[in-house]
Amino acid sequence: MAAKVFQSLVFRIKEIIGHDAGIADSCGLVVASTKTDEIGTFHEDVLDFISSNLTFQENEAFSMMKVRNRSATDFIVYAYGCGENCRESMQLICLSVENAKLYYEEKYDKNSFIKNILLGNILPGDISLRAKELRVKDDQRRITYSIHTEKSKDIHAYNIIKSLFPNDAKDFVILLDDQNTVLVKELKDKEEEDDIYRKARIIIDTLNTELMVKASVGIGTEVNRLRDISRSFKDAQTALTIGNIFDTDKTIIDYNHLGIGRLIYQLPTTLCKLFLNEVLKDGVYELIDPEMMITIQKFFENNLNVSETSRQLFVHRNTLVYRLDKIQKLTGMDLRNFSDAIHFKVAMMVKRYLDESGI
Predict the structure, then answer these.
(1) CA nearest 127: which of 141, 136, 172?
(2) Per-residue pLDDT of the chain (359 residues; tens, 9 = 90+)
(3) Model pTM?
(4) Which top CATH class is 268-356?
(5) So where are the chain's domains?
(6) Spatial contact of 34 and 8, defined as CB atoms under 8 Å apart
(7) Cβ contacts of 216 within 8 Å, gap of 6 or more
C-alpha cells in the first residue's frame, strides 16, 4: 500500500486529536508516523503488542489497537498520550485506516478495477482513463473464463487458478464467491480456439486433481477492448447456464458452440410450451420409461444407426426395432425417420428447458 496515503492520514489524525500517531504493519514495521524518524523502523512496543492476544492496550503515555481483517491483523495503530476516551479515539483511527485501505484498493488495485468492469460498476468512459493510470493495456486480445466449482472447505479454487496464471500484469483472476471464479486471460497473437479450449481443460484437470471437486468452465467470446470484457463475462455465464440445462455431461462449454440450446434458451417460454404441445400430446412424455429414454438417447448419439445402437446397448437388432416401434405407437413419431427424429430431439431439449425454468 502506498505509504503516502497513510502518511497524510496520520498527520490529519494529529491535527484532530492533538497527539503524535503512527501506523505499523503486521510485522511491527512502522509505515507511517508523525514522528518521521520512526518510519522504516521496528517499534518495540508494537512488536510486544502483536505477540499478545490483546486487541487494545494503553498506558499513561502510549496506546495501541489492532486493525483486523477477519481473523488476521492487518495493521497496528498507535498514539502517544491519547488522554480521555482513548479507546474510542483509537477505534475511530482504526476505522480511518480501514477506509484508507479500501480507498487505495479500489483506486490502485488492478484486480478491483477488472472486477468493477466485469460487474458493470464503472462507467465505460472512465475505463480507458483508469487503465492508463494502472498501466493496464486497453487494446488487447482477451477472453473470459467463468469457473464454477463445488464448495471446498480447505482452499478456494481461486488459489489454484492463481497459481496456474501468476502473471498479474496480463492475466486477472477474480474471486466472486466461494464457488465462482473468473479468469480474464490475455491472448497471444498466435493463440487460436484450440489453445483457448486447452487452457480450460488444464483448469478443470488441475482443480479435479488438487481440490478433488467437480468443476465446469464457461468460455466467453474473444474481445479486443477492456470495456468489452463485461460482455465476454456475461457470455461465459450464459454458456455455463445453457450447458447445465442441455449438456450436463460436459465440463467445458464454449459460448460460440452452444448449438440449438442457445436458440431454445432465448425463446419465450410460451412459444416453447406451444411447440411441446404440438409435438407431444399432454402426458405422453411422462409415459416414456427409463429404458425407452436410454434407447432414444443412444439412438441419437449413433446418428439413427440401428446396428451400432443395438451393439452399444447389448441387445439384439430386433429388440431395438421392437422398442422403436413401441416408442412410435406411444408418441406417434418414428425416430428412424429423420424429420420425426429432429422434432423429438428438439422437444426433449425444450422439455428440459421448461423443467429447469420451473414451468
Answers:
(1) 136
(2) 557 788 888 898 888 888 889 998 888 889 889 998 998 898 888 888 888 888 898 887 788 998 887 667 788 999 887 767 788 888 888 888 888 877 776 666 788 889 999 998 888 888 988 888 888 888 999 999 999 998 765 567 888 898 899 887 789 999 888 889 999 999 988 888 899 999 999 999 999 888 888 899 999 999 999 999 999 999 999 999 999 999 888 999 999 999 899 999 999 999 999 998 888 877 788 888 888 899 999 999 899 999 999 999 999 999 999 999 999 998 889 999 999 999 999 999 999 899 888 76
(3) 0.70
(4) mainly alpha
(5) 3-106, 140-262, 268-356
(6) no
(7) 147, 148, 204, 240, 243, 244, 250, 251, 252, 253
Domain 140-262 has CATH 3.40.605.10: no
Q: What is the CATH number of domain 3-106?
A: 3.30.450.40
Rounded alpha-carbon distances, angstroms, from residue 2 to 94, 136, 198: 17, 19, 39
